[in-house]
Design brief:
Blueprint: H1 4-13, E1 21-26, H2 37-48, E2 51-55, H3 59-62, E3 63-64, H4 83-92, H5 108-116, E4 120-121, E5 129-133, H6 136-140, H7 150-157, E6 161-165, H8 174-181, E7 187-194, E8 197-204, E9 223-227, E10 230-236, H9 237-250, H10 263-288
Helix pairs in contact: 1-2, 2-5, 8-9
The structure holds zinc ion.
Zinc ion binds next to α10.
């Protein structure tokens, strides 16, 4: 059975301390049995780090399909077959509010953080972040309706880190930011924003099933240790962004999965190819002038 003291020691071993700002992706089960469960892991994080960010999306409650007929290029989004289906989905969905529980698929640690610690949460109906600690608001305030990954921009600007606790880079949202800075994996999605009212939201990230390929490129920048059975890894956010950028510039399909049936990865690839084409023709016309 693992205790808070042992988790605290592990977090310090990877170099975290009171001035650390850290985006945490974590799997509770990766530790093995923890005395006190998710709350104990949260307590250890809060005791060691200055400011903690966790993903806090509420997609499963607030999301609705694309309305019938609303088709955007390379958007890989399911449309409701009829307005009846759309209206029924809208009626079932919840409007975003800061007290909405965090998607279960993001694990138990973000929800334990939300329900037990004073926090700030970004006000985005689909892709929100929750922050705990002395500089919490500085990060959540960086989110905009048209730029949900703003808190990660702020994290990189401040020299923060990504902490992976028993999970791989396929959970690392920083890689989505690197993609979106190169106009890749920027999708339109739909959410309920009030009773009977829906909203189209741009720059929603896509699939992360190919992100694991970044791991070997980050080895020299990664500090890691084991906390029980949990592999804890800390990587500077800027290094993740620079590395993902370099890989995508070299190969527009880098860090996407190879599954031909994966509509979001294939659409993301086409988005990037379209940008390259636009840049090439702009360059051609400027050399002609
Ligand atoms: Zn994919």
């Amino acid at each position: 059975m693992f205790s808070e003291v042992e988790i605290v020691a592990g977090l310090r071993t990877v170099g975290l301390g009171t001035t650390s700002v850290v985006m945490v992706h974590a799997s509770l089960s990766s530790f093995g049995p923890v005395d006190g469960g998710a709350l104990t892991v949260c307590r250890a994080l809060v005791a060691v780090c200055g400011t903690i960010l966790v993903p806090a999306g509420s997609w499963d409650r607030t999301g609705v399909p694309a309305p019938p007929g609303l088709v955007r290029q390379d958007n890989a989004c399911r449309n409701a077959a009829s307005w009846e289906e759309f209206d029924a989905a809208l009626a079932r969905a919840a409007a975003y509010c800061e007290d909405l529980p965090i998607d279960a698929e993001l694990g138990r640690i973000p929800e334990a953080m939300r329900s037990h610690f004073p926090h700030s949460r970004s006000r985005h109906p689909l892709v929100s972040f929750l922050a705990v600690g002395s500089r919490a608001e500085e990060f959540t305030d960086a989110s905009r309706l048209d730029w949900p990954l703003g808190p990660l921009d702020a994290l990189a600007a401040t020299g923060g880190d990504v902490l992976l606790l028993g999970v791989g880079h396929d959970t690392n949202t920083l890689i989505h930011l690197a993609e979106q800075r190169l106009d890749r994996s920027s999708f339109y999605r739909y959410a309920k924003c009030a009773e009977g009212v829906w909203m189209e939201l741009p720059n929603i990230p896509g699939q992360c099933d190919g992100f694991g390929a970044i791991e070997r490129h980050l080895q020299s920048a990664t500090v890691e240790c084991f906390i029980g059975k949990c592999r804890a890894r800390r990587v500077p956010a800027r290094t993740v962004l620079e590395t993902a950028r370099r890989l995508i510039l070299a190969d527009p399909a880098a860090l996407l999965c190879a599954d031909p049936e994966c509509s979001r990865c294939r659409a993301a690839h086409r988005q990037r190819l379209a940008v390259i084409e636009t840049e090439a023709s702009a360059q051609q016309s400027s050399t002609r002038e």
